[in-house]
């Protein structure tokens, strides 16, 4: 019995040792700062997984680390893609990042193989399921076909996917042309529906409802979070700092070098590559203003761009936090790694509330011990979000996801249409039908379709095709 317990403890100790560190957090929370500090102390190296920082140019607007910061700790995956390339994908990023990780030197921390990662955690969920080893010509052909498909209408693409992979089509919104095109290409290249590949992935040893087995099953994940009011002020101040650092000149130079000709040819695209960076498209009117514009008009366009940048940045921070919560904190399952929250609301207490706790957690994990700081608790009562397909005829909307559907039913816009329908029925403009008692928080509303148990006679209800967990 004692030998068995000793064996179990040994396994647990090995399982708790982090193979890499992941630093999550919304923009402006200090991910780069913490990554550098940990990298210096633990002799690690940093991989940036910012989707815009991989491109050359726009160093200020994409908030790249400075040359001085890079000198403090070695960084990878920054400024290595030509800004005119629009076909660089997450698969390309993964292949390069994994090759780097495999050659990283071991850290000096005892029994700890440490790589510092400053990213949005895509690495954690990349699996070997349907990623094919293609030659470069085939990769280029794949990307060309995908771009061609994306030029088609969403409804037509979705119809094609419905014919070959109805289960996948039920999980994707008709407007999500990128994901639909990807699923179509997976089927075209392999002859097997994308949904079948995903199902096989989840069935692998170590896999589950959330996906296949993790490449790095024991990461240490830090989530830098902040009071949103404090973060909003910090983000606004950062925009002002960008302006003082030469943001406007950077935008003008980049526009002339890479974007002006595209605008003239009517081929400008703010949906791909670095051109979709928050901050660049917000200044489109300013950058493309006619030469005949007065200085007063130019100043007004500039101020409009600055305000749009601040608004977009604040919205993006909220979107990032929502992604972390939904991806990690609200998803039960053995394959979800623990997440350690670090409060960065008061940056004047950085060492006390961020750096010291992070180092203590890593020290405990390196010894196979449970950290004194508890991980962020997962709400076990939170239902897993299934990517069921719902249709609201009242609002003329298609909604993917049960949580999104529940939120829609409680929205002001939907409730407005419900009240409008009631009023119309009372005036007798429509044929009489059995009354329906619909409250603001009801699970079914008139004119809506989606998974439900029982529906009133006047409610059209349709079940989504094989709901699959996202």
Structure description:
The model is unreliable at 1-16, 106-115, 117-139, 436-444 and 452-470 (pLDDT under 50). With 470 residues, the chain is of the alpha/beta class. It has a six-stranded parallel sheet with strand order 3-2-4-1-5-6, with helices on both faces. A three-stranded antiparallel sheet has the order 8-7-9, covered by helices on one side. It is built from 17 helices and nine strands. Helix 6 (136-150) crosses helix 9 and helix 7 (154-164) runs parallel beside helix 9 (177-190).
What is shown here, in short?
This protein has helices at 2-16, 31-42, 67-72, 90-103, 122-125, 136-150, 154-164, 166-171, 177-190, 194-202, 228-244, 247-264, 284-287, 295-329, 350-366, 402-409, 412-426, and strands at 21-25, 46-48, 75-76, 116-118, 220-225, 339-343, 389-392, 397-400, 448-449. The protein is an alpha/beta fold and 470 residues long. Helix 6 crosses helix 9, helix 7 (154-164) packs parallel to helix 9 and helix 11 packs across helix 14.
